[in-house]
C-alpha cells in the first residue's frame, strides 16, 4: 500500500507544484532579446506622444522636476518635445525593426534626450514615460550587436540628400550673411525659418529681400532648393512606393495562394521560361516566382499567376505552396541561384519533383547532387537537334513509339 | 462547473479578457493623461468600475496566458487534473469521491452554522465570540508569546546550526523554482493587504497612544522611536518565524521521509509517516482548512471594506454595501483564475507583479519622501528593536499586549498552516537553511524596510511636515484605511502613489487568496490525489461566499476573532512540531556541519593549499 500510495502522492505533488522543469520569475530570454527592445522603443514612442499631447493640452505646465532650472527654455521644451520625439522615435522603431545600425545610434541619443522631459516636469503623468525609458535604455545597450545592418542608399539617394543639406547650409548661411538686406530677418533662427519656408514653396512673405542682391540670392535658393527637395522626394520615397505597387500588382493575394494545389511552380524567369510557360499553359495551373517586379507586373498583365519574391527564400516558397505542388521547374539564367533554389525547395518539400535547367554543361552534376530529379541542359539538346537535323537523321527526342 | 479551465478554454478566456483589459485600459489611460478633457465626461463610480475592471481583467489575463514548457508529456498529469464533461450528477459524484468527507464537510458545516447564527442571533453570537476571544488572548498570552519566541530562536538555530545543511529531497535534488521566484511566492503568499494598510498607520497609532511598555508621553520624540520599534516588532522576524516553524517540519518529512503534503504531517514524529491517516491528523487538517478559509475570507471582506472606505474618504465616491460585494466577487474571480492556472502560471505571475509594484512604490517613495528623517529614525528603531527584542517578546500581562501583540501573534499563527504548507511545497531541492533564510530573514527584511519607510514618512508628516494626520483620523475606527491617502496627498507625485497603493492592496490580497484556495483544495482532497480544477474552483468560490455573507450579515470582526482563535491550536502544535523535528533530526541527521564551524574550518584550509600540492583525485 505504501509504495503505491507514496507514488500517487508524488504524482499529486508534481501535478500541483512541479508542472515545469524550471520556473523562473521572469522568462528572461522572452523579455530581453532584440524583438522586445524594438517593441519597447515603440512603447516609448507611444508614451512620448501621449505624454506630449497631455502636456500640450495643459494651459500652464508645472515644472517640478530636478532639471527644470538647468534646461534652457524649459516651458517651450516640455510643451513640444514629447510629440516631436515621438515622431522621430516612430521612424527609429521602423529602422530598429530592420535592425539598422543608424536607427540604434539615433535611439541611443534620443532616449536620454527624451528623459529630460519627465525630469523637467515630474508630474504623475510623466512617470510611465520615465519608467519605460529606464527599462528600454539598458536593453538597447545590451542588444547593441543585434542592430548591425547598414543603411544602404543608392548613389542618387546619397546625392539628393547631400544636395538638400548643401542647399540648406547655403541658404541659411547666405541669408544670415545678407540679413541687413532682408526685411524681418534678424538672427540664425530667422535664417533657418526663411530657408525652410522658401524651399517648401510656402513663402509666407513675412521675410522679404529688399535689395537686388538678396533677391537674386533668394531666387537661387528657390531654384536649387525646390529642385533638390523634389529630387530627394523622388529618390527616397519613389522606390519604396514602386516596390509596394509592384508587390501589389505583381503578386497573388494570400487567399489566392492558399487555393493552389497540385500546381507547377516555376522558380525564376530566364530566357527559356517563356517556352516552359507556353508548354504548361492549358495543361496545369502554375505559378511563377520571380524577384523582378517588372517581370512580375508584365506576367500578371498576361494573366499568369505570379508571386514576387526571392525563389531561394524558404518563406517565399512556402507561400508558393511548394509542399503541395506537383512539380517545380528551376530555370533562370543564373545557375548559382538556381542551385540555391533547388536546395531551398528540397529542404521544404523533399518529395516534390524538381526539374532544373543548367545553363552550362559542367553544372549538371551539381544540380543533381543537390537533389534535382531531372537536369536538362538546353544548349546540349539544341546542339544535338541541330546536328541530327543536318544529317537527316531522325529526331533523337521523338518518342520511340512514334518512329515505328 | 461547466467544463474545465484547461489550456483550450484558457485561450477562450484570454480572448475575452484581453479586449476587456484593452478597452478599460484605454479609458484609464485617457483619464490619466487628459484629466481635464475626460474627467468631466465620466463620474466617480464609473471611474472606479472602469479602473478595477482594467486591473482585474489584466490580472486574469496574466494568469491564463499559457506557460511555454509545461511537463505535459507525462500522461498522468492531465488526467489527474482534468474534469471530463459529465452530467451534473456524475460531476458531483466525482467531486465527492475526490474529497475527504471530514475535511470537506466540517468546515463547510461550521461556516454555514456561523452564518445562520449570525443571521438569527447576531448579538448573542458576537458577545459569545468576543468573550471567548478576550479570554483566550488574555489567558493564553504567555503561550502565544512563548511559542513565538521559541520559533524565532529555533529559526536562528536552523540558520547557523548544523541541521540547516539538510537538503530537502535528497542531496542531488535541484530546486525547480529559481530563487527570485521562490522569494516572490513566499513573500506575497505569506502577507496580505495588511502590510499595505498598516504600513503608514501602525507607527502613527502607537505614536498617538504609546504602548505602556514604551513609557513615553503621547506624541513625543521618544514615542516616535518606540512606535517604529513596535511596528517592526509586530511585522518583523517573529511574525515570519511562525510560518517557518510549520513549513520546515512539513517540508522535511515530505521530502526526506515520503510523508504526504498536508499540515497534519507535522505530527509524523509522533504517529509515524504511516500513521498519518489517524483521526488526529484529520482533525489537524480540518482545523487548518477552517483557519485558512476563516482567515482569508475575513481578510478579503475587511480589505474590500477598507479599500472602498479609503476611496470614499479620498475622492468622495461612496459605493455602499453593494460595492463591497461586487468588489469581493471580482476578487474571487481573479483568485480562482490564478489558483486554477497553477503555481507556475497565475500565482507566479501575479506574485512577480506584486513584488515589482512593491519595489516600484518603495523606490518612488524614497525618491520623493523625507529620506534623511526616515533613515535616522529607521536606524534608531532598528537598533532599539535589536536591543529590546527579548524583553519585547516576553512581556506579558498588560491588556494592551493582549490586544495588539498577542492578537497579532495569533493572527500570524492562524495563517501559518496554509503559508507554511505552501512554503514547504515549493522548497524541494533547497537546504533548510535557505528555506529559513527566505521565510524569515529575507521576507521580514522586506517587510521591515516597508514599515520603516512608510511609518517613518507618516511620522515625519505628523512631527515635521505640518500635517496633523492623527487629528484627521481621530474618531475613526478604520484609521488604517485612510492614513495612506493623507500621507500621499502631502507628497509630490501623490496621485500616482495613491493609485499604486490601491493596486498593491488588490495584488497582495489576491496573492494570498489564490494560494489559500490551492492549499485548502489540496487539504480537502483525498490523500494521493491532486485536487481537480472543480475542487479549486469550489474552494475559491466558497472563500468568496463566506466573505460576502459576513459582509451582508455583518460580523466580519466576529469571524475574524473566530479565525484568529484558531491560531491558538497552531501555536501549541508548532511547539509539538519543533519537539518532534528536533528528535528526528537528532536521530537521522548527524554529520552535518554548522555554518559557524564551516567558516572557521575554511581559514586554515586555504593556507594549506599554498604549501602543499592538492591531493591527487582518484
Automatic annotation (TrEMBL), chain A:
Record-linked Pfam families: Ion_trans_2, TrkA_N
Primary location class: membrane
Domain of life: Archaea
Alphabetical GO biological process terms: monoatomic ion transmembrane transport
SUPFAM superfamilies: NAD(P)-binding Rossmann-fold domains (SSF51735), Voltage-gated potassium channels (SSF81324)
Keyword terms, alphabetized: Ion channel, Ion transport, Membrane, Transmembrane, Transmembrane helix, Transport
Occurrences of domain RCK N-terminal (ranges): 261-376
Compartments (UniProt record): Cell membrane
InterPro entries: 2pore_dom_K_chnl, K_chnl_dom, NAD(P)-bd_dom_sf, RCK_N, Trk_Ktr_HKT_K-transport
Coiled-coil boundaries: none
Topology within the bilayer: Multi-pass membrane protein
Species assigned in the record: Halomarina rubra
GO cellular component terms listed in the entry, alphabetical order: plasma membrane
Protein's name according to its UniProt entry: NAD-binding protein
Lineage of source species: Archaea, Methanobacteriati, Methanobacteriota, Stenosarchaea group, Halobacteria
TM ranges: 38-56, 76-95, 102-121, 127-146, 158-178, 216-238
Automatic annotation (TrEMBL), chain B:
Stored Pfam families: BCCT
Cited InterPro entries: BCCT_transptr (IPR000060)
Keyword Cell membrane in annotation: yes
Transmembrane regions: 12-34, 46-65, 102-121, 141-160, 181-199, 232-255, 287-313, 325-343, 350-369, 409-427, 434-453, 496-524, 536-556, 562-588
Keyword terms: Cell membrane, Membrane, Transmembrane, Transmembrane helix, Transport
Domain of life: Archaea
GO CC list: plasma membrane
Membrane topology summary: Multi-pass membrane protein
Subcellular location: Cell membrane
Descriptive protein name: BCCT family transporter
Organism: Halomarina rubra
Amino acid at each position: 500500500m505504501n509504495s503505491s500510495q507514496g507514488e500517487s502522492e508524488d504524482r499529486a505533488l508534481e501535478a500541483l507544484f512541479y508542472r515545469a522543469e524550471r520556473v523562473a520569475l521572469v522568462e528572461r530570454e522572452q523579455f530581453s532579446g532584440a524583438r522586445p527592445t524594438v517593441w519597447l522603443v515603440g512603447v516609448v514612442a507611444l508614451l512620448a506622444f501621449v505624454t506630449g499631447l497631455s502636456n500640450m493640452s495643459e494651459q500652464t505646465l508645472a515644472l517640478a522636476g530636478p532639471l527644470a532650472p538647468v534646461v534652457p527654455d524649459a516651458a517651450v521644451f516640455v510643451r513640444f518635445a514629447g510629440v516631436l520625439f515621438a515622431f522621430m522615435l516612430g521612424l527609429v522603431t521602423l529602422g530598429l525593426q530592420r535592425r539598422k545600425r543608424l536607427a540604434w545610434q539615433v535611439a541611443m541619443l534620443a532616449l536620454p534626450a527624451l528623459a529630460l522631459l519627465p525630469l523637467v516636469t515630474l508630474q504623475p503623468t510623466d512617470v510611465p514615460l520615465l519608467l519605460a525609458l529606464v527599462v528600454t535604455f539598458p536593453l538597447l545597450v545590451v542588444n547593441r550587436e543585434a542592430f548591425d545592418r547598414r543603411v544602404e542608399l543608392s548613389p542618387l539617394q546619397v546625392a539628393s540628400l547631400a544636395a538638400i543639406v548643401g542647399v540648406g547650409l547655403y541658404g541659411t548661411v547666405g541669408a544670415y550673411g545678407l540679413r541687413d538686406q532682408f526685411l524681418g530677418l534678424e538672427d540664425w533662427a530667422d535664417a533657418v525659418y526663411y530657408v525652410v519656408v522658401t524651399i517648401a514653396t510656402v513663402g509666407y512673405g513675412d521675410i522679404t529681400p529688399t535689395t537686388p542682391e538678396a533677391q537674386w540670392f533668394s531666387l537661387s535658393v528657390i531654384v536649387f532648393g525646390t529642385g533638390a527637395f523634389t529630387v530627394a522626394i523622388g529618390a527616397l520615397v519613389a522606390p519604396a512606393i514602386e516596390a509596394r505597387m509592384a508587390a501589389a500588382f505583381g503578386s497573388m493575394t494570400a487567399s489566392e495562394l492558399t487555393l493552389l494545389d497540385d500546381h507547377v511552380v516555376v522558380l525564376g524567369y530566364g530566357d527559356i521560361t517563356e517556352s516552359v510557360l507556353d508548354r504548361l499553359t492549358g495543361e496545369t495551373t502554375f505559378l511563377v516566382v520571380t524577384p523582378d517586379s517588372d517581370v512580375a507586373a508584365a506576367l500578371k498583365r498576361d494573366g499568369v499567376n505570379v508571386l514576387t519574391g526571392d525563389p531561394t527564400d524558404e518563406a517565399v516558397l512556402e507561400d508558393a505552396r511548394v509542399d503541395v505542388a506537383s512539380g517545380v521547374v528551376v530555370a533562370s539564367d543564373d545557375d548559382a541561384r538556381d542551385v540555391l533554389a533547388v536546395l531551398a525547395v528540397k529542404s521544404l518539400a523533399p518529395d516534390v519533383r524538381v526539374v532544373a535547367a543548367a545553363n552550362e554543361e559542367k553544372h549538371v552534376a551539381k544540380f543533381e547532387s543537390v537533389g534535382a530529379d531531372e537536369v536538362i541542359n538546353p544548349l546540349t539538346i539544341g546542339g544535338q537537334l541541330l546536328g541530327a537535323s543536318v544529317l537527316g537523321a531522325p529526331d533523337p527526342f521523338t518518342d520511340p513509339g512514334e518512329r515505328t | 462547473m461547466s467544463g474545465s479551465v484547461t489550456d483550450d478554454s484558457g485561450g477562450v478566456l484570454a480572448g475575452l479578457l484581453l479586449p476587456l483589459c484593452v478597452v478599460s485600459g484605454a479609458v484609464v489611460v485617457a483619464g490619466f493623461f487628459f484629466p481635464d478633457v475626460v474627467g468631466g465626461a465620466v463620474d466617480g463610480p464609473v471611474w472606479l468600475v472602469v479602473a478595477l475592471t482594467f486591473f482585474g481583467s489584466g490580472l486574469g489575463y496574466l494568469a491564463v496566458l499559457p506557460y511555454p514548457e509545461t511537463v505535459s508529456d507525462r500522461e498522468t498529469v492531465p488526467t489527474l487534473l482534468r474534469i471530463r464533461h459529465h452530467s451534473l450528477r456524475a460531476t458531483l459524484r466525482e467531486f465527492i469521491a475526490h474529497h475527504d468527507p471530514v475535511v470537506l464537510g466540517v468546515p463547510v458545516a461550521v461556516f454555514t452554522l456561523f452564518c445562520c447564527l449570525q443571521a438569527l442571533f447576531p448579538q448573542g453570537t458576537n458577545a459569545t465570540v468576543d468573550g471567548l476571544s478576550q479570554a483566550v488572548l488574555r489567558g493564553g498570552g504567555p503561550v502565544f508569546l512563548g511559542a513565538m519566541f521559541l520559533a524565532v530562536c529555533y529559526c536562528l538555530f536552523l540558520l547557523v546550526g548544523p541541521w540547516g545543511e539538510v537538503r530537502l529531497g535528497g542531496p542531488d535534488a535541484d530546486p525547480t523554482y529559481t530563487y527570485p521566484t521562490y522569494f516572490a511566492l513566499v513573500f506575497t503568499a505569506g502577507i496580505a493587504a495588511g502590510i499595505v494598510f498598516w504600513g503608514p498607520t501602525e507607527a502613527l497609532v502607537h505614536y498617538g497612544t504609546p504602548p505602556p511598555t514604551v513609557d513615553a508621553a503621547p506624541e513625543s520624540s521618544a514615542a516616535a522611536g518606540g512606535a517604529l520599534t513596535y511596528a517592526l516588532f509586530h511585522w518583523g522576524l517573529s511574525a515570519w518565524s511562525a510560518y517557518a516553524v510549520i513549513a520546515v517540519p512539513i517540508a522535511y518529512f515530505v521530502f526526506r521521509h515520503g510523508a504526504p503534503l498536508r499540515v497534519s504531517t507535522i505530527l509524523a514524529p509522533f504517529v509515524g509517516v504511516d500513521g498519518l491517516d489517524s483521526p488526529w491528523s484529520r482533525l489537524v487538517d480540518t482545523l487548518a482548512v477552517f483557519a485558512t478559509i476563516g482567515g482569508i475570507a475575513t481578510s478579503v471582506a475587511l480589505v474590500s471594506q477598507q479599500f472602498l472606505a479609503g476611496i470614499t474618504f479620498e475622492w468622495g465616491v461612496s459605493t455602499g454595501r453593494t460595492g463591497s460585494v461586487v468588489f469581493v466577487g471580482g476578487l474571487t474571480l481573479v483568485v480562482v483564475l490564478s489558483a486554477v492556472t497553477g503555481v507556475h502560471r497565475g500565482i507566479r505571475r501575479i506574485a512577480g507583479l506584486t513584488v515589482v509594484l512593491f519595489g516600484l512604490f518603495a523606490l518612488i517613495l524614497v525618491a520623493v519622501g523625507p529620506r534623511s528623517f526616515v533613515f535616522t529614525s529607521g536606524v534608531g528603531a532598528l537598533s532599539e528593536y535589536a536591543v529590546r527584542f527579548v524583553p519585547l517578546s516576553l512581556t506579558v500581562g498588560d491588556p494592551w499586549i493582549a490586544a495588539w501583540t498577542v492578537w497579532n501573534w495569533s493572527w500570524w499563527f492562524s495563517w501559518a498552516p496554509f503559508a507554511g504548507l505552501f512554503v514547504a511545497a515549493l522548497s524541494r531541492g533547497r537546504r533548510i537553511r535557505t528555506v529559513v533564510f527566505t521565510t524569515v530573514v529575507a521576507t521580514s527584511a522586506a517587510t521591515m524596510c516597508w514599515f520603516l519607510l512608510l511609518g517613518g514618512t507618516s511620522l515625519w508628516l505628523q512631527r515635521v511636515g505640518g500635517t496633523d494626520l492623527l487629528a484627521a483620523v481621530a474618531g475613526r475606527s478604520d484609521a488604517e484605511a485612510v492614513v495612506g491617502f493623507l500621507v500621499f496627498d502631502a507628497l509630490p507625485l501623490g496621485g500616482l502613489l495613491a493609485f499604486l497603493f490601491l493596486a498593491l492592496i488588490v495584488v497582495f490580497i489576491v496573492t494570498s487568496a489564490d494560494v489559500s484556495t490551492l492549499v485548502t483544495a489540496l487539504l480537502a482532497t483525498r490523500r494521493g490525489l491532486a485536487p481537480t480544477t472543480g475542487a479549486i474552483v469550489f474552494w475559491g468560490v466558497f472563500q468568496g461566499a463566506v466573505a460576502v455573507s459576513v459582509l451582508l450579515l455583518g460580523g466580519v470582526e466576529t469571524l475574524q476573532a473566530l479565525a484568529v482563535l484558531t491560531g491558538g491550536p497552531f501555536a501549541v502544535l508548532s511547539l509539538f512540531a519543533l519537539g518532534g523535528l528536533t528528535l528526528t533530526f537528532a536521530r537521522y541527521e548527524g554529520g552535518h556541519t554548522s555554518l559557524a564551524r564551516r567558516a572557521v574550518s575554511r581559514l586554515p584550509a586555504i593556507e594549506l593549499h599554498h604549501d602543499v600540492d592538492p591531493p591527487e583525485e582518484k
